Amino acid sequence: MRPIPPGWLVGLFLAVLVLGGGAVAAGIGPAGVDGDTHGISDVDGFDAVVDTAPDEGPALLIGDDGIVDPARSTDDDITMRTQLRQVDLAGEYGATTRFAVPDRVSRIEVTLPTEAKSVEATGFETDDGTTYEWDGSTDEPWLRYRVDANRTSEPGPLAGDGDHLFVDTDEWGLVRVPNLRVGWGWRGADVRLHRETAVDGEGAAGDVVAYLGPGEEHVREAHGQRFRLVVPEAADMEEPPEAVLDAFADGSDALRVGSRDPSVFVVAAPTDDVAWAVRGLQTGPADMWVRDLERLDDPENVWMHEYVHSRQGYQANPSARWFTEGSATYYAALLTLERGDVDFDTFRRVLARGERSPQSGSVLADPTTWQNNADYTKGALVAGEVDRRVRLATDGEATLATVFRGMNARDEPVDGAAVLGLVDDAGGSAVAAEADRFTTTEAVPSMWDREAHDEAFGRLPARIGYSIAADDAVRASGSYRDRPVAREPVVLVTGETLELAVEIENTGGTGGEYDLTMVEDGRVIESRDGRIGAGETITERFEREFDSTGDHEINVGGERLSVVVREPAEPTVVDVDVSPAAFTLGETATVTATVRNDARLPARGTFAVAVDGEEREPREVFLDVDGVETLEWAIQPEHDGEVTVRVGDRSRTISVSPTPTPTEPGETATRTPGFGPATAVIAIAAVILAVLGRRR
């Protein structure tokens, strides 16, 4: 437990890659959210357009791929940072959105929500007060505005006692991050948008939900997820925060369906001053709020219901839409039963509601026939019955989670036929035939009794999960490096190989079959299958080499990775040295060049030593991020005097002395000054004369 500090509490949002980003409430569906709609003036005039926080569905993207870089933006990305703040007027909150614009961006247009008011702009121009065009010259343009905080809805299943979905009071606010539509154009390679959301002052922000005001944040990390539970000062939780985090951790472990979000943001919504329309609301990738008075020993367990929604990474067509609320209601009850927080009779009563009229006569595959929230009631009973039958047919080696995981692993929208196909794969044709009858007709199963439950659920079934959570599970290999790399996204350069170590764990009570497929952009790359025993953990390894640039989605068993492939950067020569610095013509000198990679990508370059402009002996260099390499050449200049040696853009001038004049044969290298051959002849003559003189 720790206080929420003032200042920047940043929530990073992956606008393009989010799945299941619509608002899903315990009490309403996506259609129940009152939201704004707005468009951009000229979609065709932009290379990319994105709705940063839409009310329904995943973030809308029009244009080129590779738009949003979630955690590792580069200097070539647009950074959009929205800072939220409380204002004096209740029912509103303030926002300031700042952009950092790289040189290659040619155009930016921002459309604010229709209810935005009191707009101030620097570096933007507008004709209508809603759509703002960048002036093309301001490096860090910004927009400051106010937004209506209060959103309402009609009550639905699991309804609260009011009509609020989001609200701002005098003391605090539980608000939805404003949805901006941003369009931009660029020159050269793709330019991506990196979005951050923060709170100015006390509070905390997730991806699309923010709390403004005093409170405490409790954090738990489990099974590759980081749970952030924000408890406002005005909240009076029925359950201890640590108990709620325990339940989330247990649910994360038990629900082996792939698609775990790395961060889950939860706010305990105060109920003393606000009447909420629903008991809980999940929206965005993994943001949610739950009323502070909700309990964990409730078979409808709203904490777990909203968490299950965060694990639904698929997009459902109408014929499969029943599964969204049906599975959330069923798993909330089942996981609460398995944790020992409710007994079987209480669990049974919740699912048995699906037998009652009028919901029992609804056709789940046809939402137009639903009565009395049939997707919650009949949908939960059918989900449970399919789970029971699959377990019996496979002796516990497969469950409804097998179907759920298969739905999450699909890149295309899932329809009713796809769900039935996954049931067939998991439990066989007989189970699929019953599932077909229960979902495409008015037929309804009967709720099973304790004896039938013990038969199907008594021994813990195979609970097979896949994860890429180990520190070294994601690696890059090749000429540049062979080491673990960061994810979200994985950044590679052409010619590198992505290596994935996928951990397969069976935490169940019996062995089971696993079927693991690596899918890239919807295309199957490689498949692995096998059997794994109870309590066993094994690892399967996948490799994928990328020869061209581009942005890719990798899906392995429902675990998703974004991979960005770029051209390698260019390394830089930071120093050149010649040893010795001065020498004689004909001698050899050693040229040493230090090459460094200061870019955020691996770098490749070819460097030759140039002696007076003549290049020799090119060397290819492959460097990791922050890598350094030393190159050496041996040179023999061809003339004396000053010689310029250059490698890259660094050079040195050296002094080369001429070769000494060679000595004559027989000569002594050292001669006495003034004593040459002529002097010697004169000296000899003088000696002879002296001798003759004495003889006289």
From TrEMBL:
<keyword id="KW-0645">Protease</keyword>
<feature type="compositionally biased region" description="Low complexity">
    <location>
        <begin position="664"/>
        <end position="674"/>
    </location>
</feature>
<keyword id="KW-0472">Membrane</keyword>
<dbReference type="InterPro" id="IPR027268">
    <property type="entry name" value="Peptidase_M4/M1_CTD_sf"/>
</dbReference>
<feature type="region of interest" description="Disordered">
    <location>
        <begin position="653"/>
        <end position="674"/>
    </location>
</feature>
<keyword id="KW-1133">Transmembrane helix</keyword>
<keyword id="KW-0378">Hydrolase</keyword>
<feature type="transmembrane region" description="Helical">
    <location>
        <begin position="674"/>
        <end position="693"/>
    </location>
</feature>
<keyword id="KW-0812">Transmembrane</keyword>
<keyword id="KW-0031">Aminopeptidase</keyword>
<protein>
    <submittedName>
        <fullName>Putative glycyl aminopeptidase</fullName>
    </submittedName>
</protein>
<dbReference type="GO" id="GO:0004177">
    <property type="term" value="F:aminopeptidase activity"/>
</dbReference>
